[in-house]
């Protein structure tokens, strides 16, 4: 943390700023120039509050030098984290993880059928929503616990680990018992109560980026989970909200690179929610792998045009099979495999 | 809902589209031109799923004609809703509501002191955070239940109703018993589980607009609460996230006008979080009242430069007193009073 | 300018950074701590290139302390600039300037009629487009030089100074001879060639904020004109592009406050283009004046529903008359007059 | 174009809407339901003005069914356009085009040296700025005509066609005579005067997407050039402005897919300006090719850390050589070559 004082600061104001910084547990280095006086923090500055310091009288500007996240920071944990989400299924290593399945669980036949299809095509895990975040209270809200049961049967039938979204802390015990990866959706990325609670489990957490979250805020939400004691966090880029409305969101592949440089956690990409158009999924999947993502999460539905939710962005099992072939070819070009 | 078919649609595709619309409970009017064929829904189209219809084969484009919210819609409820938040304290009528207080409750003396000051200056209610949503897990998270106790003592001392943020459904029974207005923060605006739960109480809810929520999504979140049976919703515009970084957010005063035209719920404005700069609060408060807001929620701290949170955007009780005088003058110009 | 070195910088890298800063004409103050080493620039840092310095090996981060604009900066020019745009007509003083008129000049009768109406209602100047920036090459592009002639006749008839948009440097001689205020539109805010050319005239320039320009970029575009020798710049906030689509743009009134704090130039607000809806113009005008704008630019059309352009956002002369009355009342509350 | 009438419309209002549509040259199909009445345009609706119609009394909403661009539209021109930019050098075919070179031309040795290096590595064309759009009037503005001379010498030495940015219509005759591809920068994407003027030449135009331009606005700017008679337009995605500040802009690769579906013009990607960080260029280049771009435009500088402009985002000739090898491998996976 570096604090720059105003040109006309008083000694008293400087002392107040120094005291405030020291109260945060750092040593302060003062360098006075004829025009600019700078206070530099030495030591762990993660407890210093940038906003607080910036409004002290005498302070012109405050700049953070180091990232505010410690546990997620690659500087202190240079190796890639690899998260095990099922027997022999890992996210973050040389092998790409591809999570596939329908937006919503709709019936036992549907989810088991899709699970078999994506397993055959080479998927690593099965996704399917049992509780659905919907903008409208009148839209289909998911099958609830029955959906979880059907997912478990699909796992039983195929061996694929199951990934599903947790929307309420009440259901955490159920999720801990039944599912393999707990998804925290984009709209709950800063539901800090939920982050703290999943931080106390040891289940792998798939943390989607919020609609308008900066990369730093996203990593800070992962830090909440890590700080709670759960090291198993997988990040998921799913597009951000911008002025462009042709696509549902704007897929930010440069965020994948940025996160992987600053942070040791694996990052997967969701091209289905990012674009909202099934015909874009294949090409954006290939782009994500070329960019360096550790995997994909793709919506696959046996009958997209009759899907209860997000049919417009779902591909068929046959299309998914094609996609996996092409993903494998691109993966090989960048030193990965499927 | 209007559905436009592709130029080369087949009869079968048209029938499928018609059936899908009818399944949502509407009658369908078909009009065929030489180039364009249009399907119009007659009746309550709120159960039709725009995305689902738009991906049917044969469908070119889908356009919603009526708003997807029914209970919040001014068309069916032309009069302004007025929400009573305490004995004789109302939000939404001719008299403006001004909610004031510190970002966080820090001690009994602090909150009661500020409460007395803002009461004297003419505030309608007291705000103060007991549970704080913070980007960093290492930042001050609020005093918790002790904070609620202190708020209740401040209410006891001044008669001001108290407004505080609910972050976890676990605390809802406590909030129902102790507080007068439950705030749902911007980061939880689409925490649908929490919305459903506060929809089952009858407490007034202050619903902040999400950082990147459209006006329609914001009203749809209010609709969740109304649909649950709780008619007491106050909307709060607190700035949206844009590319501009000089201010913390960009205050969107045109949203106040838009909401008040489409929806019967009262809208207050939070200039403190919108701008993030104490020196901007006064002018943006006056602008909000001139635009037609039903009130304000303003951060006031006895000692902003030592505030545990958001000091940079808090004004002092003395500044708040000045502000109230000026707000009164502007209010008179637009047919309101404080 | 403050440059922070990487933790593991080499002496050679430090020397390179120092040399690069000195080459920009500043003295460099080095302060070395055990963890952080900081280089502070003393003197005029406006020639230092932030991006260039930030990519030097050994450099962790670069922070600008002072604003990069000198001539527009209030620090070196504390008094408000007041720009004379016609005999006795000033923008920037105690008296508000209200510029009104149609989007496009459509005929002599139309523009002179509107001019008479807005003059009677108290407008300070007449606006009207002769050359129109249109997204589509097939849309009405304006009447061109004939439009300028009609504007001059309207000025002749009413005495109102005329404001119109310059889209091509070719027309600059014509504009210098004929018009009173040259408008640079939002889409040309960073047409640096045009900025340089109008910087060489002495005509007042109305510089609209770009659709996605930061406040700093906007002031830097004014700086181009000032640096060219033309001190007569009026800034115009007209809404920025955000994710919200209910309004045409999002009016950013906090930008008015920000600009007026950093910069001595007057700022007017265009509620018509910002919102794109005639019914919003009155309230947003009042909000702008309450916020501290130095004036307004409002679209007024004799027959909005038959306007050739932007009818949806134009108010009638009668509505403009009402608006002026209300603007006067709000102005009085904030120490201004119309 | 589909126009939906308000529920309580009058016959007179309906007739007015019908007349307004017919005046734009279309036939109108009226379909009246018990609740919704719809007017559908038959024929070429490109002259109908959406905003104008939407503000007519009696009109609830207007929806465009077909895209407003005709010449750029793939519907009427299904085959990909291939633009020849030099003898045997084409953009838009099976072979990818890679344009490389420094941000600015700095000297004859520099530009010819870089040209030789990128030619050896397989580049298709040489880029280099002679006139530079800079946010600050005090920053290096380019070498001007001398820069053009140096580019021509580099072409002479290597045979590479040269691409450089036109900022002023004054220089168009010079550019027509001397350069192979005229670049229109992001900040001039809606400088309609310049678009019209380059539309009258036959030179290939590289049209960068504006910082906050929608995909449709971008294609409409291409339509200006096509409508002027110049069919040789190459589109360039270079990142859009969003709330994220880690990267200079946010590269929108889904826009490449969207444009190529709606429009027959070739699209290249500029990863250097999009990200603003040299270390991101390689991976984002691979992602762009995987997504389906027709080529790249990459900043390559012999000595990035001493570059006069944009050094932070420039790669070295050696890095460019590596990049070309990897681009070739990815290209082969998607049926392209370099």
TrEMBL record, chains A, B, C, D:
It holds the Pfam family DAHP_synth_1. It is an enzyme of class 2 (transferase). Keywords: Transferase. GO terms for biological process: aromatic amino acid family biosynthetic process. NCBIfam families: DAHP_synth_Bsub, PRK08673.1, PRK12595.1. Residues 1-67 form the DAHP synthase ferredoxin-like domain. GO terms for molecular function: 3-deoxy-7-phosphoheptulonate synthase activity; aldehyde-lyase activity. It comes from Lawsonibacter faecis. Residues 89-320 form the DAHP synthetase I/KDSA domain. Its EC number is 2.5.1.54. This is 3-deoxy-7-phosphoheptulonate synthase. The keyword Coiled coil does not apply. InterPro entries: Aldolase_TIM, Class-I_DAHP_synthase, DAHP1/KDSA, DAHP_snth_FXD, DAHP_syn_2. The lineage of its organism: Bacteria, Bacillati, Bacillota, Clostridia, Eubacteriales.
